[in-house]
Amino acid sequence: MKCYLTTLVLLLLLLSSCNHEESTIVNFDESNEFLNFYIAIEDYENRHVEYGVLVSENDHLVLNDEQTELLSHNFKSGDKLSLSGTSFTQFKSNFQPEFLIETTSNFNNETSLSSRNNSIVNRNLLGVIVNMPGHTVHCNDNEINQYLFSTNSNHSSLKRFYDIQSKGKLSFDGEVITIDLSETISSFGLLVNEVKSQLIDLQIPIDSYDNICLFTEDVVPYAGIAYLNGKYAQIDYCGSPHILTHEIGHNLGLHHANKVINGASVEYGDCSSSMGCTFNELNLPNRITMGWLPSRFIKSINKTGGKVNLHPLESELPGKKTGIKISGNTATYELFVSTRTASNHFPNYLPDGFENTLSIHKDELYSPKTFLVAQLEEGETYSDNLIGKKIKHNGFNTDGSIKVEVKNI
Q1: Domain termination residue (choose one: 49, 66, 100)
Q2: Does pTM top 0.85 for this prediction?
Q3: Which of 85, 97, 103, 238 is deepest in the core (most CB within 10 A)?
Q4: Which contacts qualify for 141-147: CB closer than 8 Å, 24 or more apart?
């Protein structure tokens, strides 16, 4: 029996008055003995089932008493199992109701989209405006619909963003409805369950939607939350293209774009990607992971070095390279080299420091996150001993491309 594992992560955007940052937060309940998690299963027939689990103080997963039906679930090849907060080295066929959480794992970050990257994927999305007592969503149906599905070039909609990032391979369509709850629910898991119940009562076919995005107003201390490789997302601050594209990115299988500073990883520190700290086009490893950058635009370097004339990632010039992938024999990661331009589809969003420089990302083979490890100005170099390569920004060609030289160390 073979199972494909993904991670279900509570991805929380901290909401402040002037800046929207995201942080992974897990809080103990009042008894200080259990943490609440979910196991979600999307089986080989594309049915989505969720089960509540608890994490005890000795770091074991324990099924809720009423969730024992998970033990009898018939797993088959093609099933995808997700768990919040962690992932596993191997899913055992003799599934037990209690098992240790692994802190590291072999993570399969191949999403359901990347296996179909040669065809257009149409995803049906339901936007649900969820009003609660004292928390009425200030965006109306028309505004949310525009926020999600507008094709106007002046709008940074979800549909337009992912159509551009995927080069036309991913399209979002759908509709928006409004529901009113009689009580305020701040727990994402409980909110999802309540909305699902309301949708069933309204005879709305939940299974016909690939994504269900809940829009709330100031009910949680963060701006967004989503299941990684899952179906549901919550946006608590409507109107921000960063929060929307970021959280739906999690649903699609993309994790955080981090930055390494002085050897430490800074969560969301890579501001060149919407999966990082600001609204922007996706970084190079994000696009490769999703299968949205054809191999003809990528120069692969392994044993030997080489020289590459590198064009901006946003460009689509025939016969030109927009990315470099560098691998080594002993490293458990790959390096990706790219450059960016502010003259892209979403002008004025690219932060300072990325245009005309080389961005070097590390993509761990066993982690879904990406890491920005260096930004090179003209004449600067970056060396990686495990990869065994030195990368140099050798200046500019007359067409504006950057001369990149990769040498063996």
Answers
A1: 100
A2: no
A3: 238
A4: 141/176, 141/177, 141/178, 143/238, 143/239, 144/176, 144/215, 144/238, 145/175, 145/176, 147/238, 147/239, 147/241, 147/244
